[in-house]
Please model this.
Amino acid sequence: MGNSYFQFKKFTVFHNCCTFKVGVDGVLLGAWADVEGITNVLDVGTGSGLIALMIAQRNCTAKIKAIDIDNNSVLQAQENFRNSQFSNRISIKKIDFRKFLSKREKFDLVICNPPFFVNSLQSPENKRNIARHSVCLTHEELLTNAKNLLTEEGKISIILPLAEGEKAKNFAQKIGLALSRCTKVFPKENMPAKRILLEFILNKNNENQTLTEDFLLLETKQRGIYTKEYTELVKDFYLKM
Model:
């Protein structure tokens, strides 16, 4: 849903600033995910490390493990982590998520801003395909593998386009996950929702779980004027918001 220049308020990277071009989706997910009381986090497909850094800022004790399959992304995230004040709580590794399952680790939160486009026209550039298409890790694989890594009270948090989100909800139910939070994201007034934020938990004994549903509007009718709700959600991460 577009890119913007992003700068953390509470730590410094790259010679007194952490400024890198990021998508709104990653910022939304990093600010929206429930991080209260968590101690062990896995950020799947970390990219530049944005979400891992946001979680470290929001939770002062959580230890975060970030992974990515792309070497350049790992190097970028590694530099961001190393130069942040959270470097002792964030680690990065180049690994395929499907191979990570053998590590026998459990997490309170598995978070991912995953590839969006399934079965759509692919770019001739392979790196862009990895970032934008589920050619390396399908959403079904993401949910299945993430479920196997959860603690008993663990959560999975993801952001998807609306149509893919509906498919993910249906698949999650089939594999024993319950939807616990759901936020539809509308870019502007009088426009349809473009993204959906989803939180899944283990569905223990097939019980009916409490579900919190709401929506978030990013901009008002006036271009560039953000809503109070969106501003409140992300204000700790933008210098100009």
